[in-house]
Structure formats: C-alpha cells, structure tokens
Design goal:
heterodimer; A: 280 residues; alpha/beta; Rossmann fold; 10 helices; 12% strand; B: 312 residues; 2 domains; 37% helix
C-alpha cells in the first residue's frame, strides 16, 4: 500500500475523476455516467492508495490488477489512467470513436493499462480467478481487485466464480460490489431483487464487509481488513449513490447510460468544480 | 484400414507430452476428465490441473484470466458445451483479446452416440468458425490429433479443437509434414474431389475405393483446419475437377461445406454437393455406425453425392 497520499488527496482525486468522466462523455452522447460516478472513491483508493501499479511499467508481472467486471463503467477507469499519465488527456475527447483508444467497454488491445476485456456482464470475477490462480502458482504476491455491479449479481457465473475462488482459497482476490441500487431499467429491488447479498457471499466462503463506498477513510480501512486474510477471498459491499456528485443524476436510472444536454453538462461541471475548489 | 486408434486417448497423451515440454500449460476440466481424457494430465501434473466443477462458463473465463498471466490453458468439455454453453465467454473474454486459450470440444459430432440430441454437437464448428481470431481444428484420426496438438503449445491466439470420442481408422500419414491450416491430399483422383474432415475422411476414402469400380476417379483431401482455411490450397485441389463434394459430421450450415464454398467463391469450379447433417439435431443410438448411417454419413452417401456432381 502507498501511504504518502492523505485521505484528502484521495478525495480530491475522486472528484478529479468525476470531472474527467463528465468531460469524456460530453454533450448529447449517451455514456455510462451513473455507474462511473458511484465508483469514483473506490477507483481513487485502488489506483492511488492500495494497488501496486507503476504507470511507467504497465507490464510489471508483479503488479496488482483491476478487473472492472461492470465494464460499462470504464470511463472512471480511463479517468484514473489519465490522472496517472498512462493515457494522454487529449484522448478523452475521442471517447467512443472509431480511431480513439477509449472504447465504450474495456478493450485491452486498444487501451494501455487495461487488464482484460469485460462488458458482457458476469465474467470479470472468473477472469480475476484465472489471474489469481496463475500468479499464485508462479509464487507472485500480486493482488487482483474486481468491481462488480449489484445488478450484475443476477448473472449466475458470478456465483460459479465465487464458489470456485473460495474453494481454491485465493486470498489474493478482493472484490467490490458497487451497491448503488439502480440498474439499467430501474431500482435493483424492483427489477430483480437479490436479497441477503452478504449472506450469499458468506455462504460461498468469502469474508464480507459492508461500508460506505464514498467514504475514503472507511474504504481504506476496508482494504486493510481485506488484506488481513491471505487464505480466503474478501468482498467489500460498497453502499454507493449512482450518479454521485451531480444533483440531477443522483439516484436516477435515466443516467445509467443517458446523454447530457448542454445545460445539464454545464450544471454537472459546475457542481463538480465547486467541490474541487473546496479542496484548494 | 484395419488399424484403428482412439482419438481421446491420443489427445490425452499428447496433452501430457505438451505439459512436459512447456511448464506454462495448465488444464481446466468440468467433471468430464475421464471422457475427455484430460485426466491423463492430472495424473502427471496435479498442480497444473484445475477441477472447475460443472460450471463451464466460469471455467472458460477463468482460462482467459490464466492466459492474461502468461499461462497456456486447455479447457475441456463435450463439444456441445465447450462451444455452446460458454460461447459468450469464448467470444468476449478470450477471442476479443486474442488470448492463447485452447478449447477442447470432446465427444464431438455424433460420436457420443448414446446420449442423444443434448450431447451431440451438430453446430459447434459453425459457432467457433464465426468468431474473429479463432482457429478451428477437426482432426481425422489419432495421428492428426497428435500432429495438431504438437502445434498448440506456442500457436498464437485461441484454438478450438474438435475431438471424436471413438476409435477411428488411421489414415493420416505419420511422416507427413504438418502445420495448422494444412490441406492434405490423401488420395489422388482426376474426376471429383472430396474435401472431408474428422470421421468423414476415412469414410470418404472408402467412397473413393467404391467409385473406382465404376470408373470414377476421386481425389480425397483432408481439411483438418477449417479456419484459417488455406484458400489457395483448396482452389488448387478443386481446379480441373468436374465435381466437388464436402463431407462432415456436422450441420451443412456453417461447417466444412460452407467453408469450402466460401473458399471457392471467386474461382470457377465444378458443381458442389454437401454431405453432412441436414439442419437437424442428433438422436440416441446403440452404436456409432448406425447413427452415421441414419444421418447419411456413409461411403455410399458420399458416392451418391459424387455421382450427382457428374450428372449434367
């Protein structure tokens, strides 16, 4: 873990990521805004605090890896790679273009710093499993972080992977569930309610911890807790707000993959910039 | 053609051989290790053998993760599940990033004769052939299995290899130089060419022998790699032939017949006939030969198709 960044640094970075995401998605183009906003603090804490990840040595075999199983939220991962200098900020204007390196879903051949192809939901935890298995057999101490959506938990493959990872005692896997309570067409409890989420993970053999996914110190504590067990995988259920940081997008399924009007864009940028100024 | 060998056993032994030479090879299985013969690898390399349980989708995407940390994973199931149950995982997690995962579709085609429709793969090659980056292999006998496997340690990108469950006549020459994509003429002829793969290659050789008595000279060409298909080799083998017949233990939609027709699309060629499964599912049978006959996958059926190509 890196300890040179303060909690306030990490919080400021999270809001930088939000600003990048809004600028990347832009005006009148659909983009996965809501689920990117809910992840800003988690992604900040991972890339800028927890992960062993050298932006100048992307292929270091001992690096930690992030697999974004809810691949549609990739704008926030791109934003982190921009902050780290892996991706030039000019690329953000070419998001979701034929020649741009920032594709609509994670494409590791197009984008430096991406670790897997995800987007067809339910597969990221399995990919992480394979990585963790292979790295352990090579006696590497790398950790694999995975981010799963709460709507994505309806995919059966998630639970196939959860059982298999516990069976293989892979303590080097740490999963986050982005529990923002909304999915593409409405509230998760209405679309496809999945009760007893914690109990389900526990029954699969995982350590489970629930925390506020926008609380930087709480997220850092949760990661320290997860790193404490090297024999069993851990999942952090992060209670989040979809669209966090943009007043009209918070708690709104319309911005799962909605387009911003010019007015909405201006409002979003103004709101985010106001928070960013508060750190200065 | 009295010498018959089992393709699964040849596969299992070849897999162990690869494992001895390449420590990065790992094997994943979904509770069918005895059927697929991946169990042979487990016995020699238990630490590189991962039992994934009856969960093919997880197994397949896990293989992607292993490939992303520089392993060469071989995943196993019956062909129908390996290709169909995990299609989306193959497409998205493996083929988009072009990862060197090897998918063994075992008990392929009708070769699991007793288990019926749900366990017989009539469309696996069509599914796999349609995915960009995928290589599709359908070896005709144990010798070709061994030769193909020897290429899979270091071949780039994903590979689907279709393995017959049963003992088949050995027809591939042991001393023939081999590479993925190789089109191999097993018998020369001057009137009609039969392109065949898998079990149908030896059956096509039987048809050629039958037709010789009628004065029809048949060339038999084994096409063990359906993709990438060496288009120039296919065109060269078809050049000057009055007729072209394809023979496959697979639906006539999307398999070898389709691949050959695609390969010949821009050259002048004789009439084409397809021998294959005519857009139907399989059925249970007491033995393999009865089932092949039920679906018209016989030397007689190939001979009929050859004769049809020669009719005006």
């Amino acid at each position: 873990m890196r300890d040179r960044r303060t909690h306030e640094d990490l919080e400021r970075i999270a809001w930088n990521l939000r600003a990048h995401v809004v600028r990347m998605i832009g005006v009148e183009h659909p983009g996965h805004l809501g689920g990117s906003m809910s992840l800003a603090e988690i992604v900040s804490v991972l890339f800028f605090f927890a992960m062993r990840f050298d932006p100048r040595n992307l292929h270091d075999p001992n690096r930690d890896r992030l697999v974004l199983s809810k691949g549609h939220s990739v704008p926030v991962q791109y934003a982190a790679l921009v902050e780290l200098g892996v991706i030039d900020s000019s690329e953000m204007a070419c998001f979701k273009t034929i020649r741009g390196m920032l594709q609509g879903h994670p494409d590791m051949e197009a984008t430096p710093g991406m670790e897997a192809v995800t987007g067809s939901l339910g597969q990221g935890l399995s990919i992480a499993f394979g990585m963790a298995l292979g790295l352990r057999s090579d006696e590497r101490s790398s950790r694999i972080y995975v981010i799963i959506g709460d709507g994505e938990l309806a995919e059966g493959q998630i639970w196939e992977a959860a059982m298999a990872i516990a069976r293989y005692k892979l303590g080097n896997i740490i999963a986050f569930v982005d529990r923002n309570g909304l999915q593409a067409t409405g509230a998760t409890k209405d679309v496809f309610d999945i009760p007893y989420i914690q109990e389900k993970w526990q029954a699969c053999g995982w350590n489970v911890h629930t925390t506020n996914g926008h609380d930087i110190p709480a997220l850092c504590d949760a990661l320290s807790w997860a790193h404490g067990d090297t024999q069993s995988p851990s999942v952090i259920i992060a209670e989040t707000v979809k669209g966090k940081g943009i007043s009209f997008a918070e708690h709104s399924p319309s911005f799962h993959n909605g387009a911003l009007s010019q007015e909405q864009y201006d409002t979003a940028i103004a709101e985010i910039e106001a928070v960013r100024r508060s750190f200065a | 053609m009295s010498n018959r060998r089992n393709l699964r056993q040849a596969y299992g032994h070849a897999l162990v051989q690869l494992g001895r030479n390449n420590p990065d090879i790992v094997v994943l299985e979904a509770d069918l290790g005895k059927s697929t013969q991946s169990v042979t690898f487990q016995q020699e390399f238990p630490e590189r053998y991962f039992q994934m349980g009856i969960a093919e989708q997880n197994m397949t995407a896990t293989a992607a993760g292993l490939a992303l940390v520089n392993k060469v994973p071989f995943v196993h199931s019956f062909a129908v599940f390996a290709s169909g149950r995990a299609y989306d995982q193959i497409r998205n997690s493996i083929c988009i990033p072009n990862l060197p995962v090897r998918i063994c579709g075992s008990s392929a085609g009708l070769s699991d004769f007793g288990d019926g429709k749900t366990h017989q793969s009539v469309e696996d090659m069509a599914l796999m052939r349609a995915i960009p980056n995928m290589t599709v292999l359908c070896p005709c006998d144990a010798v070709e299995v061994e030769k193909a496997m020897a290429c899979l340690s270091y071949a780039a990108g994903p590979v689907y290899i279709r393995i017959n469950r049963n003992d088949l006549p050995v027809v591939y020459p042991g001393d023939e130089r081999y590479h993925l994509g190789k089109v191999t003429r097993l018998r020369d002829g001057t009137d009609v060419v039969v392109f065949a793969c898998g079990v149908m290659t030896s059956i096509a050789l039987g048809a050629a022998e039958m037709l010789l008595e009628e004065g029809i000279s048949v060339r038999v060409v084994n096409v063990g790699t359906l993709k990438p298909l060496e288009q120039h080799s296919i065109a060269a083998e078809a050049a000057g032939m009055s007729g072209i017949v394809t023979a496959e233990e697979h639906s006539i939609i999307g398999g070898l017949g389709s691949a050959i027709a695609e390969a010949l699309r821009s050259v002048r060629h004789g009439k084409i006939e397809f021998v294959g499964i005519k857009d139907r599912f399989g059925v249970s049978a007491r033995n393999y030969e009865d089932l092949l006959e039920h679906f018209g996958l016989t030397s007689e059926a190939i001979a009929d198709a050859v004769r049809r190509t020669l009719q005006p």
